[in-house]
């Protein structure tokens, strides 16, 4: 059984890398035609040896297939995510839900839309009535699983419900669209967040890094729909003034993604 599982995982990884690289290269080529001097950040570029560091140069931040496991298994929650930054400021983001043909867009100062319909986050203020979305991520080591299950249990006790859909990008789109109230995940990368961050902000939401630093140059982040919904607000025995960082504190080391979700 173990040998069969290892072979299956190895085959999945090869298929995932193949399709992600093809998609990433194609988008890079198109972007270079439009803006030859621009830089690129993505899982595929970092795997090839490029540094994952945002500079002041015009930079495309791309996740060619978010929900890679879903994609390989033909599970229909799959998206393409493209963000663009200049002077380390996110200018616009585009996320395409491939199977539902929904195009989420956001441009700094110009609002957020889904197929030209304006997006707005919810006004939910009570975490007990909030629908929370999260993702476990690609790692399956005991420490990661223990952390995930711990906060899944806490979330299940203090919120209305917690959902996992297999795509961090589309989960974040649910925050912008107001179909979910908050999102959290450990070990996210900038290509998971860049496009969605613009869309959420333009829809009236906020994106928080629990370390207080620029999440685009780190791998730790929490997205929340509005300032009124505070992660950990109702957690027994917690100081409300410290609940946000304490309740969502990620591991010290960033996750290494292979094939993404």
Tell me about this structure.
- The chain folds into two domains: 117 residues, 2-Layer Sandwich (Fructose-1,6-Bisphosphatase, Chain A, domain 1), CATH 3.30.540; 121 residues, D-Maltodextrin-Binding Protein, domain 2 (3-Layer(aba) Sandwich), CATH 3.40.190.
- Helix 4 links the parallel strand 8 and strand 9.
- It is built from seven helices and twelve strands.
- With 261 residues, it is of the alpha+beta class.
- The N terminus and C terminus are likely disordered.
- It is 34% helix and 22% strand.
- Helix 5 packs parallel to helix 6.
How does the overall form come out from the CA principal axes?
Answer: globular
Q: Any idea of the CATH topology of the largest domain? A: D-Maltodextrin-Binding Protein, domain 2
Low-confidence stretches: 1-9, 231-261
Strand content: 15-25%
Brief descriptors of the model:
alpha+beta, Fructose-1,6-Bisphosphatase, Chain A, domain 1, 5-stranded mixed sheet, 261 residues, disordered C terminus, globular, D-Maltodextrin-Binding Protein, domain 2
Write the layout of secondary structure elements.
Elements: H1 2-34, E1 39-41, H2 43-47, E2 59-66, H3 68-72, E3 79-86, E4 89-97, E5 102-107, E6 111-114, E7 117-118, E8 131-134, H4 142-158, E9 161-163, H5 168-177, E10 182-185, H6 190-202, E11 206-208, E12 221-224, H7 243-247
Parallel strand pairs: 1-2, 8-9, 8-10
Antiparallel strand pairs: 2-3, 3-4, 4-5, 5-6, 6-7, 10-12, 11-12
Binding site for Mg(2+): 43, 63, 65-66, 192
InterPro entries: IMPase, Inositol_monoP_metal-BS, Inositol_monoPase_Li-sen, Inositol_monophosphatase-like, Inositol_monophosphatase_CS
Cofactor: Mg(2+)
